[in-house]
Amino acid sequence: MLRLFVGLELPPMIRERLLGQMGGIPGARWQTDNQLHLTLRFIGNVEEHLASDIDLALQGVDFTPFNLALDGTGLFGTLKKPRLVWASISPTAPLVALERKVEAALVRVGLPAETRKYSPHITLARLDRNANRIDRFLEASGDLTSPDWPVEHFTLFRSHLGHAGAHYEVLERYPSPDVDPI
């Protein structure tokens, strides 16, 4: 079985900016450089033959390159029961369009449709019930921004779970037909 997801890799400049924001929340499990990405669609565990079908379907996703930028931070859960903190990405029309195309391709190969509304974000830390001072972190990092960066491909990742957290492996990159192949 392969544990898969589709996402966007982040350029080094953006990962460095995000890593520089991390800290100040006791009880947080901060993401590592390797773990920073923007998920388009979590797939989960699939057999290898289905992974091949997924790869073929994703090869057919056509999109025009676009730009993204960081736009603040936020929290899933509540201050009393936090689950994770994240960096915000404005839900630009091209990003949402790409997510919908990826979703449609995955449904065509037999995966169940995603029922949750797409909420573009970059996970910064997972929080346990002992995490505190989250409000201070959100206040201090709420104006997080970045220069635009180009999105010219999306990526199929494999997630390896371990005691130190997840490690992500790039399985395939899918460039826009409007750019030279990677």
Descriptive account of the structure:
This protein has one domain: Cyclic phosphodiesterase (Cyclic Phosphodiesterase, Chain: A), CATH 3.90.1140.10. Strand 9 and strand 10 form a beta hairpin. It contains four helices and ten strands, in the order E-H-E-E-H-E-E-E-H-E-H-E-E-E. The strands form three sheets. It has a four-stranded antiparallel sheet with strand order 3-1-9-10, with helices on one face. It has a four-stranded antiparallel sheet with strand order 2-7-6-5, with helices on one face. Strands 4-8 form a two-stranded antiparallel ribbon. It has about 180 residues and is an alpha+beta fold.
Termini separation: 27 Å
Total E-strand runs = 10
Largest sheet: 4 strands, antiparallel
Estimated structural class: alpha+beta
In total, how many domains does the architecture comprise?
1
Which strand-content bin applies to the residues?
A: 35-45%
Q: What CATH architecture label applies? A: Alpha-Beta Complex
CATH topology: Cyclic Phosphodiesterase, Chain: A
